[in-house]
Amino acid sequence: MKKMLLSATALLLSVSIFTGCTSSPSSEGNGSTATAEELTPFGKYAETVTYTVGKATPGIPKLPEGQSYEDNAYTQYLKETLNIQNKNKFEAQSGDNYDQKVAMAVASGDLPDIMAVDAETLRQLVDNEMIADLTEVYESSTSDIVKEKYASYGGRALDAATFDGKLMAMPSTSNANIPTMLWVRKDWLDKLGLPEPKTIEDMEKILTEFVQKDPGGNGKGKTVGLALSRSIGGLYGSLFQADNIFATYQSFPRQWLEKDGKVIYGSITEETKQSLGLLADWYKKGLIDPQMAVRESIESLIISGEAGAFFGPWWSADYPLNDAKRQNNDADWRPYIISKDGSGEVTAYTQNPAAEFYVVRKGFEHPELLPKIASALNDKLVHEDLNYEPVVNFIKGGFDGGKPLGIMVNYNDATAQMYKDLKAAVDGKKEYETLTLDDRTSYDKIVGYMKDPAKADANQWSGYMSRMVGAKLMAETKVNDVHPVFFGQTKSMKLKWANLVKLEDEAFLKIVMGEEPLSYFDTFVDTWNKTGGSDITNEVAEAIQE
């Protein structure tokens, strides 16, 4: 993440447009009273600019005694860097409480200067002309690094905040957390003389050996091959999902996709039916947790040493495997990439790149403040001022919720970059002090593990296994991305989606557990369409067209 300087062209353009003049708010409410220097990403205001925010609080942990969301290490940093001060128009805990406060502000028309909203509220604010057009201030007041981070999503993040060619919000981004991988008890493989898995066929053979030969000594019939959630697939980058299996059939449950010019729902395709057929066969053979329908804690199955494999993301070594390692230091869990042909190349669907949207009240005199804050927090602080002592101490104390705005902008491949930075530091090619605070903590664990793996504690093991093994697989695996085309909520979804999700979960579970034949899938699809699915599909198509 090399710091890039503003290009001479961009700088000259900025100077030519803004030098020697200030502007009053335009009739459209998008003007700024800032000077040319103040409009730059890190230009400090000559006089303190006070702005109001709708503050979503984390709830736990609480701020240190004597600090508040208007006065803490982060607000101090922004005051010193930009000469700005937040005042909270309202505070509410993230989730329903915050959403209710936002709804009240929108209904009354009494908005804070800056706040976070969801996609539906963003469209409502745009339709009612309540928020500022950020197109110009994004260009002038966003740092090159933050622009580069947004660009790493191939335009998908900013497109979600763009209406009729105008940028109406700045989104927080959700970076890639794929591919998930198959985590396997390597010590069990070694005990049984089995090779490491590369294909679905390899995986089936391994699960069969685990269940039949009980390498963990759990007792006859007590070893689980694959630990699997009763909600079988479609939760992006999550633990205990079977998305890796579905993807080998080009199936992407719970995702809205476009195929041959038409919108399709990934859970009702023929490819999904085939995937369920394989899982049903494995369940019938005893390779999948027989108690999956009623299992309340899959984690306990892993920690107790009763299961030999599960699907999970790169960070699975931190949770739940850290606890498994504490329970049994000999449990050697390793991640593997499973592909259809053993090439290591996989297909996976991507998640919504825009997690939430930050908007500026129409008529606010300093709309450039949002991109400036986003740039200070997501560029200057983490790349240039990463040793700023008040924030370092704040985070070390276990508090990281004091930012006036929770806008998070990261590279789409942030996990791969994390691995490369840590690898470079371990190899002596990168200075320790240039690592982020989180990466320094990981580095310490990694080095501790590498000194003597046999004597490493669970934290050192998990730090190494997640960031030097799991993240390495993320960085080096070729992934063919499938981009869903819709992440929002349509009118009919509000009334019918919960029931349709329940219908889907129950149908999939019945098929996998053999309570219904595979042909029951066709019955499920027919019911899904007739009870609202068909209407929702049409609404999604219309929303995409808009």
Strand order of the largest sheet: 2-1-3-14-6
| Helix/strand structural class | alpha/beta
Put simply, the count of helices is 20
**In angstroms, what separates the terminal alpha carbons?**
36 Å
Strand content: 5-15%
Question: Rg from C-alpha positions?
Answer: 26 Å
**Biggest sheet overview:** 5 strands, mixed
Number of strands: 15
Could you characterize what this model shows?
- This protein has 546 residues and is an alpha/beta fold.
- Helices cover 43% and strands 13% of the residues.
- The strands form 5 sheets. The protein has a 5-stranded mixed β-sheet with strand order 2-1-3-14-6.
- Helix 13 runs antiparallel to helix 18 and helix 16 packs across helix 18.
- The longest helix has 26 residues.
- The radius of gyration is 26 Å and the shape is globular.
- The N terminus is likely disordered.
Produce the secondary structure layout.
Elements: H1 8-18, E1 49-57, H2 73-82, E2 84-93, H3 96-108, E3 114-117, H4 119-127, H5 135-141, H6 144-151, H7 156-159, E4 162-163, E5 166-167, E6 170-173, E7 181-185, H8 186-192, H9 200-213, E8 224-227, H10 243-248, E9 256-259, E10 262-265, H11 270-284, H12 298-303, E11 307-312, H13 321-327, E12 333-336, E13 346-349, E14 354-360, H14 369-384, H15 389-396, H16 414-426, H17 437-451, H18 458-476, E15 479-482, H19 491-512, H20 520-545
Parallel strand pairs: 1-2, 1-3, 8-11, 13-15
Antiparallel strand pairs: 3-14, 4-5, 6-14, 7-11, 7-12, 9-10
Helix pairs in contact: 13-18, 16-17, 16-18, 17-18, 19-20
